[in-house]
């Protein structure tokens, strides 16, 4: 059963409301956080003023992590929506199904072989995500698993546990790799810079192009293979392009922020509750809703145990776990 959108959304278009809320959250991310400056000290920086200390903290520390969280949130939200539509499974999520773990494992292997994380992380992470996607979709096609969301998630959790265990085992024997890979294991946007973000732009642009190509056929495929074929689409081609787009999105996000789970589950859930099951409308709303949730979690992680920070993955798990239970129980779950 499709959830009914809140009444105020009948007055304010959801994309406009989400865009406005995203702007507010981004400003809050620049003004709030651990450090010696208060929001009153940080506010003048947004207008070109402020002290040198305030400008450094806002522009060199908070701005890059806000932009990274914006891109990562949008990428993971869209990847989750694509995976759920492709598998016709509301529990499909990169962090739950081993896709993020595949990225982490691939990067760990390359670091063990002496590669540089700065130059190879993005591409290696994407290859690992692609391998994870293919394993998950292959498992989904096994009789009885693809029709059972719980069994599919259990299979994904098994794959995730296996890959993360192998990653931890490898890092025990190489301290250099352990230091470089540490943030991939926990998930965080702290300490990132704009150069990390620039490396993602080509991959994200390609993923966007693939999504624009596949979104209409994917909407037809969600009605069933026969319906898609009747409309002149090729299901095999649709799946390949969608998997490639998901690999680019998840691999890019994991390369810069590590494996952040539940964002790909929560964001499509919220978007479908507002926009309905149409993947085209859902994807449009995932673009602002993903960053809203991730940046909000990042702000909370800075403030709740200040001056220290909670791992971002812990906050996203706290947010996502109740949504997972809600989806499993099937109450008020937007239809796919």
Structural description of this entry:
Helix 4 packs parallel to helix 6. It contains 14 helices and no strands. The protein has a domain at 76-264: ABC transporter involved in vitamin B12 uptake, BtuC, CATH 1.10.3470. Residues 331-335 have low confidence and may be disordered. The protein has helices spanning 14-31, 39-42, 52-87, 99-112, 117-140, 149-171, 175-186, 194-198, 201-221, 225-230, 235-257, 263-275, 279-303, 312-329. The chain is globular and about 65 Å long. With 336 residues, it is mostly helical. Keywords: Cell membrane, Membrane, Transmembrane, Transmembrane helix, Transport. One of its GO terms (biological process) is siderophore-iron import into cell. It comes from Marinobacterium lutimaris. The chain crosses the membrane at residues 16-34, 63-83, 95-113, 120-140, 152-173, 200-220, 240-271, 283-304, 310-328.
The number of helical segments is 14
The CATH homologous superfamily of the domain at 76-264 is named: ABC transporter involved in vitamin B12 uptake, BtuC
Mean pLDDT: 80
Q: What gyration radius follows from the Cα positions, in whole Å?
A: 20 Å
Write down the secondary-structure element order. Answer: HHHHHHHHHHHHHH
- How large is the share of residues in beta strands? under 5%
As for the CATH topology of the domain at 76-264, it is ABC transporter involved in vitamin B12 uptake, BtuC
| Shape field | globular
What's the CATH architecture name of the domain at 76-264?
Orthogonal Bundle
| Main sheet attributes: strand count, strand direction, barrel closure | none
Helical/strand content category = mainly alpha
């Amino acid at each position: 059963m499709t959830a009914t959108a809140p009444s105020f959304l009948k007055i304010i278009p959801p994309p406009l409301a989400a865009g406005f809320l995203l702007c507010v959250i981004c400003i809050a991310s620049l003004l709030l956080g651990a450090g010696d400056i208060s929001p009153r000290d940080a506010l003048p920086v947004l207008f070109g003023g402020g002290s040198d200390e305030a400008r450094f903290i806002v522009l060199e520390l908070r701005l890059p992590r806000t932009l990274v969280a914006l891109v990562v949130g949008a990428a993971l939200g869209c990847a989750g929506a694509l995976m759920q539509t492709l598998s016709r499974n509301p529990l499909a999520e990169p962090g739950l199904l081993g896709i993020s773990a595949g990225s982490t494992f691939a990067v760990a292997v390359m670091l063990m072989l002496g590669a540089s994380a700065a130059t190879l992380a993005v591409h290696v992470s994407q290859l690992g995500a692609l391998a994870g996607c293919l394993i998950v979709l292959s498992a989904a096609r096994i009789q009885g698993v693809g029709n059972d969301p719980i069994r599919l998630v259990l299979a994904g959790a098994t794959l995730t546990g296996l890959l993360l265990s192998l990653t931890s085992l490898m890092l025990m024997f190489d301290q250099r790799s352990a230091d470089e890979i540490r943030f991939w294991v926990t998930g965080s946007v702290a300490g990132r810079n704009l150069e990390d973000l620039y490396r993602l732009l080509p991959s994200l642009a390609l993923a966007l192009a693939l999504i624009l190509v596949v979104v209409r056929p994917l909407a037809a495929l969600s009605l069933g293979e026969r319906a898609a074929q009747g409309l002149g689409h090729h299901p095999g081609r649709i799946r390949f392009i969608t998997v490639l787009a998901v690999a680019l999105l998840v691999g890019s996000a994991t390369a810069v922020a590590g494996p952040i789970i539940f964002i790909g589950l929560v964001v499509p859930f919220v978007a479908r509750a507002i926009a309905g099951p149409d993947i085209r409308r859902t994807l449009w709303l995932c673009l602002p809703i993903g960053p809203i949730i991730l940046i909000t979690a990042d702000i909370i992680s800075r403030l709740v145990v200040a001056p220290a920070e909670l791992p971002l993955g812990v906050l996203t798990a706290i947010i996502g776990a109740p949504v997972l239970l809600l989806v499993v129980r099937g109450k008020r779950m937007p239809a796919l």
